Amino acid sequence: MTDPASAMKREVFQLIELQSETLKREGRLTDFDLEQYRTRSGEIARLYRELDCMRETRTEWRRAKAS
Predict the structure, then answer these.
(1) Which helix H or strand E contains 47, and what residues bound it?
(2) Which of 23, 49, 50, 57 shows the greatest Cβ crowding within 10 Å of its Cβ?
């Protein structure tokens, strides 16, 4: 079974790769391209917030266990 954090990190990397590919395109980006870019940016930010929350929860759990 895949660790949720690993799956989320993999998704972030995939989204970042799509962002990079979008910016490498020659010519002008379409309105659709820009909207998709913004949507992916929001998803990347959301996933990073969730990963931060998971890390904080794990750290708190370890502190409580050590006490």
Answers:
(1) helix 31-66
(2) 50
